[in-house]
Inverse folding.
């Protein structure tokens, strides 16, 4: 049975990886601020190089899934040193430790590495990040390539799912507000492929089992605006959609620039794993069932 170490196990994706992997793999996890208890769970700050090496020496994983990151896009813009330290230096520490330990590394990157000027994006397309968060992710991708570690880079987008220790995702924000019958303004001019976290987990493990290497686009199937996505959420969760109002990016005054439309092609990952990524309707329906079981 392979041993898998998830860095950032308390996060949205990290939590789903721990859950999704436990029937097939020996799962280990790390946390930083959000303390987790259990014999397979360890504290780790990826910016501390010796800590990273020491964890890998203790756990001896076959594969490390590095989900740790400063993920706030606007926060990264205003805290560039911190973003660099975690997203670039932290990733480098993990990659070097993986190389030393002979472990495979799966790293999570973002669709924001692209500027949104093209119709659809394949893995070979040239990235051009518009914000600092995406720049740090792209530089981290280059670090992995340069180190020649055995890696998978999975570029994903707009994650939704259960867990994440209270972290607000776009989906949880929409659900919260519509449940309280609060008005929300949602942009019509930012398009991405919303990605159901459990489906991302299934595909990441499938790529691992295929011993795939290199860069992969691993997102949901459908590309849509946040406004359309909010409407779908209302439909699946049976909320009144009259509280969802269209707005545009210039009206929002977001700190970091976002690409207008990044449509990620998932052909490569489908070809290699044989798995067709989940579309928005199916992803939201699966999420709804999970939430009903928890509530
Ligand atoms: N969410 C999205 O829509 C999206 C889109 C594209 C790409 N991604 C990428 O996918 C990955 C997972 O995203 P997510 O939404 O699951 O992230 P998340 O919920 O914000 O979790 C990130 C985790 O990183 C850990 N972390 C932060 N700084 C750390 C440090 N210095 N050392 C060790 N751990 C640290 C945190 O641990 P503690 O909680 O214990 O402090 C946190 O649980 C990230 O790499 C993100 O950039 C996400």
């Amino acid at each position: 049975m392979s041993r898998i170490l998830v860095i950032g196990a308390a996060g949205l994706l990290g939590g789903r990886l721990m859950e999704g992997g436990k029937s097939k793999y020996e799962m280990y996890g790390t946390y930083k601020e959000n303390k987790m208890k259990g014999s397979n769970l360890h504290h780790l700050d990826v910016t501390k190089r010796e800590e990273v090496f020491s964890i890998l020496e203790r756990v001896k994983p076959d594969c490390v899934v590095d989900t740790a990151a400063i993920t706030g896009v606007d926060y990264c813009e205003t805290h560039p040193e911190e973003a660099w330290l975690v997203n670039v230096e932290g990733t480098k520490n993990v990659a070097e430790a993986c190389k030393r330990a002979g472990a495979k590394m799966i790293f999570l990157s973002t669709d924001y590495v692209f500027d949104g000027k093209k119709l659809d994006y394949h893995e070979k397309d040239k990235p051009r990040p518009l914000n600092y968060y995406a720049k740090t992710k792209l530089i981290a991708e280059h670090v992995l390539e340069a180190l020649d570690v055995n890696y998978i880079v999975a570029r994903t987008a707009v994650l939704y799912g259960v867990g994440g220790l209270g972290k607000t995702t776009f989906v949880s924000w929409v659900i919260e507000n519509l449940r309280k019958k609060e008005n929300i303004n949602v942009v019509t001019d930012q398009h991405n492929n919303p990605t159901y976290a459990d489906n991302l987990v299934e595909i990441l493990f499938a790529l691992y089992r295929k011993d795939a290497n290199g860069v992969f686009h691993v997102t949901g199937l459908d590309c849509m605006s946040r406004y359309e996505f909010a409407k779908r959420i209302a439909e699946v969760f049976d909320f009144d959609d009259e509280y969802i109002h269209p707005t545009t990016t210039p009206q929002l005054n977001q700190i970091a620039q976002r690409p207008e439309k990044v449509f990620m092609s998932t052909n490569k990952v489908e070809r290699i794993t044989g798995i067709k990524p989940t579309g928005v309707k199916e992803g939201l329906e699966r999420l709804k069932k999970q939430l009903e079981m928890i509530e």
About this structure: The chain has a mean pLDDT of 96. The chain has one domain: 3-167+193-222+263-279.
